[in-house]
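Render this sequence as a predicted structure.
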Amino acid sequence: MQIRSTATAEDRDVFVSTVDVAFGHFSATPDENGGGVWWAALEPDRCLLAFDADGRPVGTTGSYAFELTLPGELTAPAAGITAVGVVPTHRRRGVLTAMMRHQLGELRARGEFLSVLLATSAEIYGRFGYGPATHTQRLTVPRHRAAFAAPRAGGADSGGTGSGSTDRGSVEVLRRAECGDVLEAVYDRYRRTQPGALSRPPRWWALGAGQPPVAQAPRYIALHRDAAGVPDGYASYARNGSELTVDEIVAVDDTVYTALAGFALGHDLVTEVLIKHFPPEHPLRWRLADFNAGQIGNHTDWLWVRLLDVPRALTARAWSTDGELVLDVTDPFLGEHDRYLLTVRDGKADCAPTTRAPDLSLDVRDLGSLYLGGTTPSTLVRAGHVRAHHAEAAALADAFFRTDRIPHCLHWF
C-alpha cells in the first residue's frame, strides 16, 4: 500500500471522490467561486490518499491547521483531522491503521503537538490515542413555557457579567448574507476566551465551508450589540414549520447569551425552540421560570484530543494549582511509554522526564480527555481507566486539571 499527499487539483478530485465512496454520499458541486461545499477549505498539503497494490485509491485522511483555545485563555496550534475514510471493499485490512500512523508521523515532523477530531464512531479513535474532551447537547423549550424568572440575587441589576445581570444592549435581525464579516469577528472574539473552541480561519467564511452559519445557507441572524453599539454576540436560526431551530449562539458572556436565547424563546409563530450545541452546565435553564421546561437531549461527545508531544502540550495550558504531579503515560498505538514530572508555579508548568514514583498511570487517550478540563481524573479512576497510586492521587490530580470554564466546541469540520 502507498500513502501520499494530494499535490494537484486532480489529486483533490480523487480525494473527494474516494471520500464519497467511503461514506456512501455524493458531494455537491462548488459554486462559481469554488466554495459552498464541505471540502472547499481542504488544505491539499495536509491531505493523504492511500492506494492499494493495483494503484486504486482506497482510503483518505486530512487535517486542517486550527488554533485550539486552552485553559487560561491561551491558544495553541492544533491539527483538525477530517475526511477519514476507507472504501467498503478494503475495510478491515489495516488501511485505516496505516493511514493514522502515517498521519501522526507527518504531524510530528511538522512540529505539531496537538491533534483533534470529531468522531463518527466512539469505538474507532480511542485506539489511535484520541480521547473525548468536550461534549455538547441540545436544549428544547416549548414556547408556552419559555418565560424567564426574575433574578433573585441581590444587586442583579447592577450591570455585572453573570447571567443575572441586566442586558443593556440591543438585538438586530439580519440575513446571513448581510453580515458575514461581523459574524467572523464576533466568533473570533468568543473563541479566544472559550476553552475547547477552535478557530474558524477566514477562508472557511469566504468559501462557506462547513455548516451554518459558516455555510452561506439562508439563515436569520440575531445580532447583539453592547451599550456602545459593538457587536458581542449572535444567534443563527431558521424556522422549520412550528419549530425555531438555532444553529448556534455565540456570545462573549452569559448575559449576552441569555439575551439572545430570550430573543429566540420569545419568537412568535412557533411552538418549540431548539438550541443546538447547548453548552453543558450552562445556567440558562436556571433562568426559566419552569426549570423542567428546558429539556436536554442528544448529549454527546464532540471534540476529541490527542497529545503528540506530552511535555509541550502540558506546558502550553494554564493550571489551577501549584505543586508537583507525576504522570506515567502509555501510548500503545505509537509504542511509547514515558514518565513525566509536572511542576506548576504561578499557574505555569514545566514538564520533564522523571524516574520518581508516579501519582497516576494512564493511557494517552485518557490524558487527551483530561487535557481541557472537561473530565476529572477521579472520574476516570472510578471508571477503571486511570490508576491512582496512592489515596491522595486522584484528588491531587483533580486540583491540577480543574478549570474555571467547562470546555465547549461549536465548530464542525
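Summary. The mean pLDDT is 95. The longest helix spans residues 9-23.
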